[in-house]
Amino acid sequence: MVIKTNKFSVMGAAVAAMLFAGQAQAANTVTTSASVEIAAPIAITQDAALAFGNLGPSGTSGTATVAPGASSVSVTGGVTELGGTVTSAAYTVTGASGADYSVSIPTDISLTSGGNSMTLTLSENSSGTLTGGTDTFSVGGSLAIGANQAAGSYAGTFGVTVNYQ
Fold this sequence. Notes:
Elements: H1 2-24, E1 43-48, E2 51-52, E3 55-56, E4 62-66, E5 74-77, E6 80-81, E7 86-87, E8 89-94, E9 100-104, E10 108-113, E11 116-124, E12 127-129, E13 134-145, E14 161-164
Antiparallel strand pairs: 1-8, 2-7, 3-6, 4-5, 4-13, 8-13, 9-12, 9-14, 10-11, 11-13
């Protein structure tokens, strides 16, 4: 009898396990949605170019600096300010309202006139927020002018990149 009881107990346990296994395999499903809003592409336009005006060199080297947002130049060393148009570079950024952005510019560029050159070290505001989908920033720089720098119209270009943060 004991053996039969064990057989029935084992058999009962197997049937119970099958019943519970069937219940464990029953599933419930929920439908979930997904969405996305694609932001307007970030864009940049130049409003003004960086200009140092007219400068006079001497036998002593020096610098001419236009700060970001400034419309005046400060000079050091043997450099003399001689007037002309002075302005920092100005830009407008557009994109998704409320989005933060960063600005990337090179550290140094060369301004050249024929075979002559000067080094311009750039400075700018490094980031901002697109309030109402727009913002502005400016770029300035410090120009290293050599002793007896050759006369001429010096020019150079640089890239300005904006990215969403």
